[in-house]
Amino acid sequence: MVVKKKLVVAVGETGERIGEDHPNARLNNEQVDRIRDLREDFGLTYAQLAAMYSVTKSCIAGICQYRRYVSTPFGFKTLIVEAEDAQQA
Q1: pLDDT, averaged across the chain
Q2: How far apart, in whole angstroms, are the C-alpha atoms of residue 68 and residue 55?
Q3: Residue 83: what are its φ and ψ, rounded to 5°?
Q4: Which domain holds residue 52?
């Protein structure tokens, strides 16, 4: 059975989904904060962080240099999504 659910997501100034709410996001906001902390506080290399989080070194570099995951939410949107109801098995 397919059910409709409401999903609240963060959006930037242009209305596009940002951070962990972006459809292509591989990391959540907590992981991004932790990556930045590990780099700044303990000096871990991009290669070490990439291996820890199973992403590329260029992804880690972008996060640490604040080129990725830098947007502050401008607002929030409510999306209606369809999902399979797991309880109907």
Answers
A1: 87
A2: 13
A3: -140, 150
A4: 26-70
